C-alpha cells in the first residue's frame, strides 16, 4: 500500500493540464458552449465509456426513497486487471459536469498507464447529468428537493459506486486511490471516512480548513486580492473602486438600463448585485486559473490571465471611467475568444451553480439555515494535524500558493504518509 503512495509521490507531480497540449491549441473549444459539444477529448488516451449507476438518493435512512442515475466515466485500457491487483484511480467528481473535469485532469490520464490503473470519474450528484428527481429544474426546485445535496451523501455515493463496481469486475482486492481537485476535499474525506474502501488519496487544492473559524473566512478573497495586487496595484485599486461606482450608477434614474447597455448584457439588469456577482465570480475564477500558459479550464484564457486583465484595465488613460475599465478587464475573461455577442449573467457554462448551495449555503436563496459547525463535526478541521497524524495515512495534499483555495489547504507535512506538496508559483488543479 505504502509503495503505491510512494510511487505516487515519486512520480513527478508536475501537473500538465491537457489543455496545454498541442492537440488542443490547434482545435480551440469554446467552453461556454461546452455542454452542447460532444466529447471534447481529442487525445488518444482520453477515451472513456459513459456508464450510469442506479444510486440511492438518501444513504442515511431506510425509508423507501427514490433513486437516481449517477453517471460515471470509465477507462480500462491501461488496467492490468484484478489478477495483477491493478489499482483503481477514482477521481471524485465535484461541482460540475464530469466530462469537463475528465477533460481537464491531465495528470490522472498521464499516470494511469504508468500504474496500469483503471480510471473512473464518477459524477457528483446534482451536477451534470446526475440529477435526482429526473431533471435539473426539479432537483433544484426547493429546499426539500435540494436536501440530498450534501457532502456526506456525495461521498457515500462514491463509496457505494466503487464497491459495486469492484464487485462487478471481480476486483474486490484491487486498491482504490481517490483523487480530486476542488473536491480534493472529497478525496481526503473518502480516505478518512472510508479507509477500508480508499487506500489513499491525492487531494489537490483541498481547502479542508476553509470552514468555520479555522482560517479566517476572508482568506479566499484575500488571496484573490493579493493575486491582483501582486500584478498591479492600480488595477487592484480600480477594481476596488468599481464596487462603489456600480452602486452609484445603479441608483441613477436609468442607471440599470445604462449599465445593461455598457456591459453589453443580453437582458436588462434588474439590480446592481447581479452585475457585481458576475464580476466578482470572474475575479475569483481568474485567480483559480491563473496559469502561466493558455488554458481552457474554465474559459478559454490567455497565459497569465490576471496580468492580461490588469494590462487592459491599466491601459486606459487617466480620466476614463472606472466601469469602462472594468468592462474591458472582464472581457478578457468572458470574451477572450471575441465570439460573444452579449453577456448572459445567468449563463453557467460549467453547471457550477449548485456550488453556491454547498459552498456558501445560500440562506436567502433557499431558506435554509446553515449549520456552521457541522462540517468540522463531521469531518474534523480543528487541530487537523493531530487528527490526521493520529488517525490518517496515505494522503497527498498538493497546493499552489497562488491558488485562492490554498489558504484553507494543508501546507505542511503531517506524517510520513500524509504529505504536503506545495508549489510557490504554480497552480495545482488535479
Ligand atoms: C419541491 O420539489 C419537489 C421536486 O420537484 C416536489 O416534488 C415537491 O412537491 C416540492 N415541494 C414543495 C414544498 O414545493
Ligand atoms: C454492476 O452490475 C449490475 C448488473 O449488471 C448493474 O446493474 C450495475 O449498474 C453495475 N454496477 C456498476 C457500478 O456499474
Ligand atoms: C430581470 O428580470 C426579468 C424578469 O424576471 C428576467 O427575465 C431577466 O432575465 C432579468 N435580467 C437579468 C439580467 O437577470
Ligand atoms: C494616471 O495618474 C496617476 C496619478 O494620478 C499616475 O501615477 C499615472 O501615471 C497616470 N497614468 C497615465 C496613463 O497617465
Ligand atoms: C467580444 O469581442 C469581440 C471582438 O473583440 C467584440 O466584437 C464583441 O463586441 C465582444 N462582445 C461583447 C459582448 O462585448
Ligand atoms: C513533504 O515531504 C516530501 C517528501 O517526503 C517533500 O518532497 C515535500 O517537499 C515536503 N513538503 C513540505 C511542504 O515540506
Automatic annotation (TrEMBL):
One Pfam family this sequence matches: Peptidase_S28
UniProt-listed GO biological process terms: proteolysis
Gene Ontology MF terms in the entry: dipeptidyl-peptidase activity; serine-type exopeptidase activity
Alphabetically ordered keywords of this record: Glycoprotein, Hydrolase, Protease, Signal
Signal sequence, start to end: 1-20
Tree of life domain: Eukaryota
Family: Belongs to the peptidase S28 family.
Name listed for the protein in its UniProt record: Lysosomal Pro-X carboxypeptidase
Organism encoding this protein: Kingdonia uniflora
Amino acid at each position: 500500500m505504502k509503495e503505491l503512495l510512494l510511487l505516487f509521490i515519486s512520480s513527478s507531480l508536475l501537473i500538465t493540464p491537457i489543455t496545454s497540449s498541442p492537440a488542443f491549441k490547434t482545435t480551440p473549444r469554446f467552453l461556454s458552449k461546452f455542454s452542447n459539444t460532444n466529447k471534447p477529448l481529442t487525445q488518444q488516451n482520453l477515451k472513456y465509456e459513459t456508464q450510469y449507476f442506479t444510486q440511492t438518493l438518501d444513504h442515511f435512512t431506510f425509508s423507501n426513497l427514490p433513486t437516481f442515475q449517477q453517471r460515471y466515466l470509465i477507462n480500462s485500457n491501461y488496467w492490468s486487471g484484478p489478477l495483477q491487483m491493478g489499482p483503481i484511480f477514482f477521481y471524485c467528481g465535484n461541482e460540475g459536469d464530469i466530462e469537463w473535469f475528465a477533460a481537464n485532469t491531465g495528470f490522472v490520464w498521464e499516470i494511469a498507464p504508468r500504474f496500469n490503473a483503471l480510471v473512473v470519474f464518477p459524477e457528483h450528484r446534482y451536477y451534470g447529468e446526475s440529477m435526482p428527481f429526473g431533471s435539473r429544474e426539479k432537483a433544484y426546485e426547493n429546499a426539500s428537493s435540494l436536501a440530498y445535496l450534501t457532502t456526506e451523501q456525495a461521498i457515500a455515493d462514491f463509496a457505494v459506486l466503487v464497491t459495486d463496481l469492484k464487485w462487478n469486475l471481480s476486483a474486490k482486492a484491487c486498491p482504490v486511490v481517490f483523487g480530486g481537485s476542488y473536491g480534493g476535499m472529497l478525496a481526503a474525506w473518502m480516505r478518512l471516512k472510508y479507509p477500508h474502501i480508499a487506500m489513499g488519496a491525492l487531494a489537490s487544492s483541498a481547502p479542508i480548513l476553509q470552514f468555520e473559524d479555522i482560517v479566517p473566512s476572508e482568506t479566499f478573497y484575500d488571496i484573490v486580492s493579493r493575486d491582483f495586487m501582486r500584478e498591479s496595484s492600480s488595477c487592484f485599486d480600480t477594481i476596488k473602486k468599481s464596487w462603489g461606482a456600480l452602486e452609484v450608477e445603479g441608483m441613477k434614474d436609468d442607471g440599470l438600463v445604462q449599465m445593461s447597455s455598457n456591459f453589453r448584457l443580453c437582458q436588462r439588469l434588474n439590480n446592481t448585485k447581479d452585475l457585481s456577482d458576475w464580476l466578482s465570480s470572474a475575479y475569483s475564477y481568474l485567480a483559480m486559473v491563473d496559469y502561466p500558459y493558455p488554458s481552457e479550464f474554465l474559459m478559454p484564457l490567455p497565459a497569465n490571465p490576471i496580468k492580461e486583465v490588469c494590462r487592459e484595465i491599466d491601459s486606459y488613460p487617466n480620466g476614463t471611467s472606472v466601469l469602462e475599465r472594468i468592462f474591458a478587464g472582464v472581457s478578457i475573461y468572458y470574451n477572450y475568444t471575441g465570439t460573444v455577442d452579449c453577456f448572459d449573467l445567468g449563463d453557467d457554462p460549467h453547471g457550477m451553480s449548485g456550488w453556491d448551495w454547498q459552498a456558501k449555503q445560500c440562506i436567502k436563496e433557499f431558506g435554509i439555515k446553515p449549520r456552521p459547525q457541522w462540517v468540522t463535526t463531521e469531518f474534523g478541521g480543528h487541530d487537523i494535524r493531530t487528527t490526521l497524524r493520529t488517525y490518517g495515512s496515505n494522503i497527498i495534499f498538493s497546493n499552489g500558493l497562488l491558488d485562492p483555495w490554498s489558504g484553507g489547504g494543508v501546507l505542511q507535512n503531517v506524517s510520513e504518509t500524509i504529505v504536503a506538496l506545495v508549489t510557490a508559483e504554480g497552480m495545482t488543479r488535479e
